[in-house]
Amino acid sequence: MTRETRVVDNRVFLTGLDELYRTAMMQHESSELLTCARRVAEKLKAQPANLPVAGYYVKSKELTEFFLLMKALQEIGEDQRPEVETMPEYQRLLAVTSSALYGRPAQTGKLLPLAINSLTQALGESENWSLQELVKTASKVARGNDDDSIVGLAALAKDALMVVATSESVTLFTLDSTTSAWPGRREPPRYLWKVDADLSERATRFVETFNALFVEDLPRPGQHQAEAYWRAARSDTHLGRCVCLGRSFGDHHYYHWAIRRSEAGGYEVDEFWHAERWTTARYRESIGYVGIASAPGF
User: What does the DSSP assignment read for 35-66?
Assistant: First the structure.
């Protein structure tokens, strides 16, 4: 009788955490938070923004509506805050957008803040943007600033792939098979937690913040929840995720990171500049993405 060991390392854990976060967040954005955005926009007579829909917000008309309403609200100046500040719907949106889930709120002079996480700070501090240097700088920032955001956790792990994946997950809230020796009966697999201690500790704070903010029950990181994160990581949808990180001042080209298939069959990060802003939907169309069932390359 054989027994498979399934290891939950930094990559598997972060993949599982990102999937659990996205699944739960999409439910809140499609219902509770959408209602809040509608009421605040109605009060301020704000129309949905007219721009490309990024990330997973193309998955349903409710998510698309939420994305475009939030983009519109994010452009309204803080001088209009007195009109809505007593509304519980506005206070709820403010609580979410100000949450440590996304980093520290930037002082933008707008109705709702955008977050600065380790990557956005690294982008602001680096003169030359490149994948290797930005991930290296973001990791230093995450460690020095005690950044417990989901992007900060990926940066702390120095995992470029997960920095891209998690950045795409929070784009709306941030600033610009088994083997066996024989075909007989096998013992249930055992799950081995091999996540770095500091990453696990900070991720616990992220999970606790999310659960408190949304009355959810994302599993607390640790050996006792290794199976939950391993299984969540297998429903990975990282291929083709694309995030626009910034724009050059000279020729106004946009700087992007995206996740593509590597020659070895796993994933790798594709960094590129383009005259237009690319979204996940556009990048996936360019690579012929049709959806995947499980994550390769573990």
Answer: HHHHHHHHHHTPPPP-SPPPGGGGS-HHHHHH
Total residue count of the chain as it appears in this document: 298
Tokens of 3: 């027994």
Residues sharing a CB contact under 8 Å with residue 288, sequence separation 6 or more, in sequence order: none
Q: Which residues make Cβ contacts (< 8 Å) with residue 78, sequence separation at least 6?
A: 109, 110, 111
pLDDT in tens, 140-169: 999 998 899 999 999 999 999 999 999 999
H helical segments located in 126-225? 131-145, 150-156, 160-169, 197-214
Please tell me the distance from the alpha carbon of residue 229 to that of residue 221, in angstroms, as a whole number: 8
In the block, tokens 């439910």 appear at 27
Identify each DSSP E strand in the chain by its residue range: 3-9, 104-105, 115-116, 187-194, 242-247, 254-261, 267-274
Beta bridge partners of 181: none
Asked if residue 229 lies in contact with residue 220, where contact means CB atoms within 8 angstroms, the answer is no
Tens-digit pLDDT profile for residues 10-63: 999 999 999 999 999 999 999 999 999 999 999 999 999 999 999 999 999 999
Poorest-pLDDT segment among 162-176, 182-196, 253-267: 182-196
